[in-house]
Each structure stands twice: as structure tokens, then as C-alpha cells.
Design goal:
There is one protein chain. It is built from 8 helices and 2 strands. α4 packs antiparallel against α5. It is globular and about 60 Å long. It is mainly alpha-helical and about 230 residues long. It is about 75% helix and about 5% strand. Strands 1-2 form a two-stranded antiparallel sheet.
């Protein structure tokens, strides 16, 4: 059933309304990754010599190598760790647009719903972003002491958090905040599994750039399926 939700989300990539949000999200994700990477190189330039030797990447300098091949490879490597929080930011700001496009295409008989106030969306997004950072730091520390279980710790923690956040935001549009939390508790196991499946490709460079939009659409389908709403 989870894969059916994903298949419907994937099939809608050609929808102009859906594609607009996709390209906007891709642009913002890339911009954020590049900005974080620029800050990272700036920090290296401040604390180290102008030329820095990094394993596998060779010499990296602040300005000259910012757009070099080795520099781009390093940015993609960093994206493995950065895309989890980037995905959380993207989700909170654009999930409602994705959900609206999904509902117009697949659930046209549902009544329209008012948009979540921008202040609430930003507040919830920043709160979840902070939680995600704290949990990932804790997961990293645990992984150091329990190295053989590092993948399970990393994907388990992020899958739980991402699944809960994606599902609750999709549900909150229709049910309200408290009822959305109750819906998540009733389906926590299935939502967590779906979140873990989404967390895995988020650690794959380039592929992780399209995962947030597909995840948002997938969890919208999941919410409606669990609510008994049939796709048209």
C-alpha cells in the first residue's frame, strides 16, 4: 500500500501544478545547500591556510575552487548529511501546496480547506528543524559507540521524525492539529516505515533533491487512504 501511494505521487510529476512546486523546491534546496557549503568553505578559509588538502578531494580553496569539480563533489557529499534538515524546512513551507495539487488531481470531491496561517507554518517548521538537529546529533553520538548499528540508528531516528512530520502536516489540513496527532498515533507503525523508506534516498546525492516533494505527495496519499478517501 505504501508503494502504491508513492507510485501515484511519482506519476503526477508531469502535472504543471505539481512540477512548479517541484522546481521551486529543487531551486531552494540547491540554494540552501550551496549557501551552507559556502559558509563551510568560509570557515575553513578563516581557521586554515588559503589552500586546504582534503582526502579524496585534493586541494580546496575558498574562492578559486568554489565552483570546481572537486568542490561540487564535496558539496554533494555534504548533502548526504544536510538533506535531512533541508527536507524538514522544505516540507513545512511547501507541503500544503503539494497536498493541494494532489487533492485536486486525485480527490476532486473533497471540499476546499483554508490555508494554514503562514506564521503557524514557519513556527512549526523551525521547531521541527531544531528537533531534527538535536536528534541527529544524538544519533551521531550513539553511532560512535555502537558503530555496527549506525545505519539503523540514523535511518530509524530520521524515519520516525520525518514520517511523523509529513503525515501530521498532511492530516492537519483536514483534521486540525490535535486530531492530526491522534491520526498519527493510530497509524504510527505504518507512518514510521514509510518515513524510513523516505530517509534512505535522502542520503543519496542528487536523488535526495527530489525526495522531499515526492515524500510530501506520498504522505498526502497515505493520509487519504487511511482516512477512507478513494483516489479519483
Amino acid at each position: 500500500m505504501i508503494f502504491g501511494d508513492f507510485a501515484r505521487a511519482l506519476a503526477q510529476l508531469g502535472d504543471p501544478r505539481f512540477r512548479r512546486v517541484l522546481w521551486l523546491g529543487l531551486a531552494l534546496s540547491l540554494a540552501l545547500l550551496f549557501a551552507v557549503y559556502a559558509v563551510f568553505l568560509g570557515f575553513l578559509n578563516w581557521v586554515m591556510p588559503d589552500t586546504v588538502m582534503l582526502p579524496y578531494f585534493g586541494e580546496i580553496t575558498w574562492v578559486d575552487d568554489l565552483l570546481s569539480f572537486a568542490s561540487v563533489l564535496l558539496m554533494l557529499t555534504l548533502s548526504i548529511f544536510l538533506m535531512m534538515p533541508v527536507a524538514s524546512l522544505f516540507t513545512g513551507l511547501f507541503l500544503e501546496d503539494v497536498a493541494a495539487a494532489v487533492e485536486q488531481q486525485h480527490y476532486p470531491d473533497l471540499p476546499p480547506v483554508p490555508r494554514i496561517p503562514w506564521r503557524d507554518a514557519v513556527s512549526d517548521t523551525l521547531a521541527f528543524f531544531g528537533l531534527l538537529v538535536i536528534v541527529n546529533i544524538a544519533a551521531f553520538v550513539l553511532s560512535v559507540f555502537f558503530a555496527p548499528f549506525a545505519p539503523f540508528i540514523f535511518y530509524g531516528a530520521n524515519g520516525f521524525l520525518l514520517g511523523r512530520e509529513y503525515f501530521q502536516i498532511a492530516a492537519m489540513r483536514r483534521l486540525g492539529r490535535q486530531a492530526a496527532r491522534d491520526a498519527w498515533r493510530d497509524n504510527a507503525w505504518q507512518v514510521t516505515v514509510a518515513g524510513m523508506l523516505m530517509a534512505v534516498p535522502l542520503s543519496v546525492p542528487l536523488v535526495n533533491l527530489i525526495v522531499p516533494i515526492l515524500g510530501a505527495a506520498t504522505f498526502t496519499h497515505m493520509f487519504h487512504r487511511l482516512s477512507g478517501n478513494r483516489s479519483g
